[in-house]
């Protein structure tokens, strides 16, 4: 397994047959691109190969020309084949459409039939493919799962000799990819060995991804590795072909006028202006953002200015996405505001420039995105990162420098995911009707993510499936057979993407689908009359059809809309990037300590990073103020702990995952010591805690200095035990195991009961494994603790809050409305809260509860049963809290919920309807409600302004509150 050497000759096409070479000449391919020059020789020899090269350098042709040639040669030797010769697997349906269009010319010219199959393929077309298989089938991982169990299709799949996996890095980092690797082993049982080809623009650990693709045992002796699993890696340097500039826009006189026109701040206006200038300077520009919310908010600004710029993301309908892709390709649009879905190779024609709005968070993401630009032969791709905040700027500088050197993060392969094992065991039973446990185990463990799966754990998964009646297990005969639930389970779980209910959004005026909304957004926000943004336009909800899961809307002109909320985690900043930000702070801080001016320090850093002094100075300002105030500076080699009142903040430049791990450890152990819950929020450079009165920063220091790194995993498991994160993940994993039947619904089977029912099972183990893999960094955090305890990392308590500690990056919501919200926005917030629903529960007699809209609540609510004014105002779905209040004997969790209800009731008893309004706001809770109510104000608008501010804070930190 060695990287393929560069082909010394200029003409790699000589490795292809005469027919394909003639087609190349007709197509105008006279000279191979570098990926073609280096990869076609091993591919033409039939070798498994991972090809890593920038977007637009001909990777598709690199892979397919040798495959077309092999199909032609096979046809000459054997005559026509009855089945599929090659499968081209892509992670997105949109890529299927693109691949079909790109490959059609070659198919017609070489007399090779190419077709597409995915979830939307018509029944007629599917039947046609089963009866008369095309030579090349372009499909998705999920459709391959469905094909493997069809009798006619299994016959067609037996002829497969080549499998090409496009955007392999995208699949390697997900359970979809783990599922695909076992799917390929199931295919191998049908067809025998086949050539495996992987394509990607960026991969941080090529050998690991190539082994993931081929099932090669990277650490095993050659004698124990199948010869057909050996591979080559062809990697074309990406970093040398990209150029970046990082810009923090300066506010100009023009921005004041633009801010008024857009009803936003001058700062946001300056961002819009700079992006518009870049778009004007280029013919075609992609504007990447990190969230769909930001895409909608930024897109609405350009709509307001009448710019030919549209929005593109995964929650828009297929028709809308195809329309904007085609208009962009034709030159009718100057730019697209897009999210990660456009990182992959969707063909939108030539792209001159890429704008990244805000830090890209990862090197791989930046290279994928900027790599979309400059698609002419061997042209440099150019991109501009626009930042709005000191953390944003320093982080972008670190990422840009690392990208230039090709320092890409590892793929984060899912090893040992047990819900995938469960899914694929059922798949094998579907394939054969019955299969021995030994054969199933050997098939699963041939896939790279499961090489280390123990037989004992495999059998535990089989027993769980048997108890859920998804298969019959005959332990004595070691035989697995179909049961009544096998077929239904398998076809309901072809995908490993967690099931999330979504609502279609339909424009009543044009009778077209606009996009989709997440169920949580519809439940928590959507109601007739409410306004939101989608596709960069404002919509008012007319009605919601619960049975059809449809939201009917009409377009409006209104500046007070709310950005739709989609499920999705913040892109984590890797430790290496955060460390470099810490290092950068240290370099600048040292110069400030010696009296250097900001302009001089900025000028010095310009030589190392792609930015000018005007961009660097605002980013260096908090460091300068921090040093001037005499505080020790948090760097890559120093952790600082600061506190004021009930807030303790650990300044640690270790990235999201290590900080999340440290945060969960500290919040759990401090909570254990005090007997109270500890609120936590995390960013790559800070961990903020809300602690009980009297808890000092020294408590946090002592825990970091005394916690045994070797026992970290046990502490974290205890910390996660009752967390909402575990309950939510457990529900998703349980569905994939068939332990949580769909008809039950998560709402009818509470998280606590589910946890109690599944603890000690493979389902529970997998939920815990997934959280550790997805959110935490166990080994790296243990190393941080060791370094602290060995004195390699400084640990300093600084006392008061510091400039660095309080300079955290805001969320993308600031695009929607300015921080100082105007009267129309406050009116919208007031109107929304008054129309929200609230659950009223008597904490005196405990016999009465009632759900109603806030506006219908009396000025002083009272219980109609007993007349008490001790009435708690709760979330309308807080049934578990009501049950806890009524329970005679309570566990710890129920006791916490009861106390929360009592605090809410005391607040309502003292402050009446004002308390109900405060408690109905999102993420406020009794503690914050009491603080907001007690504040002196001259007018009611300030009360709602404070509620809005708290809602924003909650939106920024909600994923970290358990």
From TrEMBL:
<dbReference type="InterPro" id="IPR027417">
    <property type="entry name" value="P-loop_NTPase"/>
</dbReference>
<dbReference type="GO" id="GO:0140097">
    <property type="term" value="F:catalytic activity, acting on DNA"/>
</dbReference>
<dbReference type="InterPro" id="IPR052511">
    <property type="entry name" value="ATP-dep_Helicase"/>
</dbReference>
<dbReference type="InterPro" id="IPR013701">
    <property type="entry name" value="Lhr-like_DEAD/DEAH_assoc"/>
</dbReference>
<dbReference type="Pfam" id="PF08494">
    <property type="entry name" value="DEAD_assoc"/>
</dbReference>
<feature type="domain" description="Helicase ATP-binding">
    <location>
        <begin position="40"/>
        <end position="221"/>
    </location>
</feature>
<dbReference type="GO" id="GO:0005524">
    <property type="term" value="F:ATP binding"/>
</dbReference>
<keyword id="KW-0067">ATP-binding</keyword>
<dbReference type="InterPro" id="IPR011545">
    <property type="entry name" value="DEAD/DEAH_box_helicase_dom"/>
</dbReference>
<keyword id="KW-0378">Hydrolase</keyword>
<dbReference type="InterPro" id="IPR014001">
    <property type="entry name" value="Helicase_ATP-bd"/>
</dbReference>
<feature type="domain" description="Helicase C-terminal">
    <location>
        <begin position="270"/>
        <end position="421"/>
    </location>
</feature>
<dbReference type="Pfam" id="PF00271">
    <property type="entry name" value="Helicase_C"/>
</dbReference>
<keyword id="KW-0413">Isomerase</keyword>
<dbReference type="GO" id="GO:0016787">
    <property type="term" value="F:hydrolase activity"/>
</dbReference>
<comment type="similarity">
    <text>Belongs to the Lhr helicase family. Lhr-Core subfamily.</text>
</comment>
<protein>
    <submittedName>
        <fullName>DEAD/DEAH box helicase</fullName>
    </submittedName>
</protein>
<dbReference type="InterPro" id="IPR045628">
    <property type="entry name" value="Lhr_WH_dom"/>
</dbReference>
<keyword id="KW-0547">Nucleotide-binding</keyword>
<dbReference type="Pfam" id="PF19306">
    <property type="entry name" value="WHD_Lhr"/>
</dbReference>
<dbReference type="InterPro" id="IPR017170">
    <property type="entry name" value="Lhr-like"/>
</dbReference>
<dbReference type="GO" id="GO:0003677">
    <property type="term" value="F:DNA binding"/>
</dbReference>
<keyword id="KW-0227">DNA damage</keyword>
<keyword id="KW-0238">DNA-binding</keyword>
<dbReference type="GO" id="GO:0004386">
    <property type="term" value="F:helicase activity"/>
</dbReference>
<keyword id="KW-0347">Helicase</keyword>
<keyword id="KW-0234">DNA repair</keyword>
<dbReference type="GO" id="GO:0006281">
    <property type="term" value="P:DNA repair"/>
</dbReference>
<feature type="region of interest" description="Disordered">
    <location>
        <begin position="25"/>
        <end position="54"/>
    </location>
</feature>
<dbReference type="Pfam" id="PF00270">
    <property type="entry name" value="DEAD"/>
</dbReference>
<dbReference type="InterPro" id="IPR001650">
    <property type="entry name" value="Helicase_C-like"/>
</dbReference>
